[in-house]
Write a structure and sequence with these properties.
Blueprint lengths: L4 E9 L2 E9 L1 E6 L5 H13 L10 E5 L4 E2 L3 E5 L3 E2 L2 E8 L2 E8 L2 E2 H4 L3 H6 L3 E2 L3 E4 H4 L7 E8 L2 E9 L6 H10 L8 E4 L14 E8 L4 E12 L4
Parallel strand pairs: 1-12, 3-15, 5-11, 6-17
Antiparallel strand pairs: 1-2, 3-4, 7-10, 8-9, 8-15, 9-12, 13-14, 13-16, 16-17
Length: 232
């Protein structure tokens, strides 16, 4: 029996909301999806200085086991060397492409050894609400990504940026198709993130959201990060 993750989701459109079961059998993480190529290269160069291998091309599509997908309110991680990052996600459900929000939580300690391994080590939390892509596409660049962490008992804005800094969903899907991939039914893809405010760092709590200021709606989710002790 193929691996899959099932959960109930809310599909919200201009005509209302509908609750329906979702079955995801494949998760793709789109990396290096920045729209500004000069800024993207600068980011690659900076990461190379700390040992993170430069991508062979951009964008790059990573795979993680579908069992890493989570809608829980808490995830367990190895030690305190991981961090979340808010991303828009795309889901093919019922023959239609939907937009949601998730966190590409990644082990930063292992990242310099291999990005694919670092991503596979952590669960990928997603919100359970989605919007039709065709409803937000006309004003796509006005959507915003935001995340909040907890430091010294207080909430701190960790990321705050527009999706305009990332290549569009249609371009991302076209790039995926060039590599023989497809956002088929039951496939979920992470589409990219914006930079952290300050350093990339661990927090015991991560809350993220995707906001549409035109249709005045927000998709959000938060989760606790519970470290598993490193022994031996």
């Amino acid at each position: 029996m193929p691996a899959e993750v099932a959960f109930d989701a809310t599909f919200t459109s201009r005509s209302g909301s509908e609750r329906a079961p979702v079955r995801v059998h494949k998760v793709i993480v789109g990396g290096w999806t920045g729209r500004d190529k000069a800024a993207l290269q600068h980011h690659i160069d900076e990461l190379s200085k700390i040992g993170v291998k430069a991508p062979s091309k951009t964008p790059l599509f990573y795979r993680v086991g579908v069992s890493r997908l989570s809608t829980a309110d808490a995830i367990e991680v190895i030690g305190d060397g991981s961090s979340g990052e808010v991303e828009y996600v795309l889901l093919n459900h019922g023959g239609r492409i939907w937009v949601g929000a998730g966190s590409d939580h990644t082990d930063r300690v292992v990242e310099h050894m291999g990005i694919t391994v670092a991503k596979q080590l952590c669960d990928k939390p997603v919100a359970t609400e989605f919007w039709p892509l065709d409803e937000v596409e006309p004003h796509w660049d006005q959507l915003r990504l935001r995340s909040v962490i907890v430091e010294k008992g207080a909430e701190v804005v960790y990321q705050d940026g527009g999706v305009a800094g990332l290549i569009s969903p249609r371009e991302l899907l076209a790039k995926l198709a060039e590599e023989g991939g497809e956002l088929a039914e039951g496939v979920l893809m992470f589409g990219g993130t914006c930079g952290a405010i300050g350093s990339v760092r661990y927090s015991p709590r991560f809350r993220f959201e995707l906001t549409d200021p035109v249709l005045n709606r927000t998709i959000s989710h938060g989760y606790d990060i519970v470290p598993v002790p490193i022994v031996g």
